[in-house]
Every structure is written in C-alpha cells, then in structure tokens.
Design a protein that fits this description.
136 residues
C-alpha cells in the first residue's frame, strides 16, 4: 500500500499529538497547578513510541545523530526501545572527523591562509595590501 507511512505520520501530527497536548495541559492545570508546575512537577504525555521505529530504515539518521555529538549511543538506543550499553562507551559523545579538526578543535567556517569563498569562486586576485601581509 502506497502512502501508508505518510498517512500515519499525518494522523499523528494532526490528530493524536494535539489531543495529547490538550490532555497534558488540562491534567497539569487541574492536578498540579501553577506553583507545582513552576517547581518542575508536571505530567508529560509522550506519543513518540506510538509509531514503530525501524533502526535499519533510520540508520543514516542515527549515524548523523551520533557522529555530530548531539546524542550518545545510549540516547539513541533508548529512543529505539533497546537496552542501554553498560559502561562508559554508551554514555560518551562521539564526533565524526568532518565536524572537527585533527587536534580536536571545532572547524571554523574560515580557515587561515585561504581566500574567502567569493574570491575563490570568482578567481579574483588578492588585494595588494593583503598579499604583503600574508592574509587571505
């Protein structure tokens, strides 16, 4: 059946999630009140586990989440409904080399010694004062 996944996603977005939000707000307002909510005591309705999460369909996305350091391996495993890895490996953040330099520092948009993107694109010569100072 074509479009079933899209129909399920739209059903969740436009039907189930708004109902969950309304239930969450109403329960928090009536049961906890503003003072308790302000202290951090509240109810959260989570609808993320209603749809089936196929780890193999989302392998590229999982790789990006872990490689960018946004999530640890255990964070992704919990979201997929899998048990966490014991020890320190599952809780460590991993960074892919395309996000960081070899010395571990974050890559900047402009590295020293290179001309700005527009000059490289147009192949325009450097200004004389910049050539003498050794700047880009």
């Amino acid at each position: 059946m074509e479009g079933t996944a899209d129909a399920n996603s739209r059903f969740m977005t436009y039907c189930i999630d708004p109902l969950c939000d309304q239930l969450q707000e109403e329960i928090n307002r009536k049961r906890y009140g503003y003072e308790e909510w302000k202290r951090g005591n509240y109810l959260r309705v989570d609808s993320s586990s209603i749809l089936h999460f196929d780890i193999f369909e989302n392998a590229a996305n999982v790789e990006k989440l872990i490689g960018s350091g946004a999530f640890t391996i255990n964070d992704v495993r919990r979201a997929a409904g899998q048990p966490a890895i014991l020890g320190t490996v599952g809780g460590r953040a991993f960074y892919d080399e395309k996000y960081f330099r070899n010395d571990g520092k974050h890559k900047s948009r402009r590295s020293r010694g290179r001309r700005p993107y527009r000059q490289r694109l147009n192949n325009t010569p450097l200004k004389k004062e910049n050539r003498q100072r050794g700047r880009c």
